Amino acid sequence: MDSKDRQIIRALQKDGRMTNQELAETVNLSPSPCLRRLRNLENSGAIRGFSVDVDPKTYGLPITVFVRIRLERHNEEDVRHFESRVQTIDEVLECHVLTGAMDYQLRVVVASLDAYEDFIRNRIHPIGGIASIDTSFVYGTVKKTAVFPALG
């Protein structure tokens, strides 16, 4: 991946709806080579898809929660079980493996505190093998971006 490919990616991260003509102008390429580079980025897996950034409050999910989980055991079977179950839970938007005292951090969205309680009791607890759950509720967002920093 060269600097022009990175320019294309950053431009699309800022505005994924721009036309190829607009993209080409933004990155100083003619449309044909720009489209060829874009297709190569998609085919290589560098660009994994396009999505829309939706306001969760407007959608009806005003509560964002970071949930840190520590497993009781770290054997292959328990880890695989936990990770496969988490992947099926719609409220979990992200699940990251961590270093340090906790094993995982989940970003979760729910409609209410009651919905969060239901999420923990009926989605997380039944997974089993969980030693501890630590929860932080988001009450404000200072910065949120999907645009990678420029390299070089």
Distance between the termini: 13 Å
Shape: elongated
In terms of DSSP E residues, the strand content is: 15-25%
CATH topology of the largest domain: Alpha-Beta Plaits
In CATH, the homologous superfamily of the largest domain goes by the name Lrp/AsnC effector binding domain/regulation of amino acid metabolism (RAM) domain
Give the mean pLDDT.
96
Number of domains: 2
Q: What attributes does this structure have?
A:
2 domains, four-stranded antiparallel β-sheet, Alpha-Beta Plaits, transcription regulation, DNA-binding, alpha+beta, Tscrpt_reg_HTH_AsnC-type_CS, Arc Repressor Mutant, subunit A, sequence-specific DNA binding, 152 residues, Leucine-responsive regulatory protein
Write the layout of secondary structure elements.
Elements lengths: L2 H12 L5 H7 L4 H14 L11 H4 L3 E9 L4 H11 L5 E6 L6 E7 L2 H12 L5 E8 L15
Antiparallel strand pairs: 1-3, 1-4, 2-3
Helix pairs in contact: 2-3
How would you characterize this protein structure?
- This protein is α+β, with helices and mostly antiparallel strands.
- It has 2 domains: 3-44, Orthogonal Bundle (Arc Repressor Mutant, subunit A), CATH 1.10.10; 56-137, Alpha-Beta Plaits, CATH 3.30.70.920.
- Helix content is 39%, strand content 20%.
- It has helices at residues 3-14, 20-26, 31-44, 56-59, 76-86, 113-124, and strands at 63-71, 92-97, 104-110, 130-137.
- A 4-stranded antiparallel β-sheet has the order 2-3-1-4.
- Strand 2 and strand 3 form a beta hairpin.
- Helix 2 packs across helix 3.
- The longest helix is centred in the N-terminal third of the chain and has 14 residues, at 31-44.
- 11% of the residues are buried.
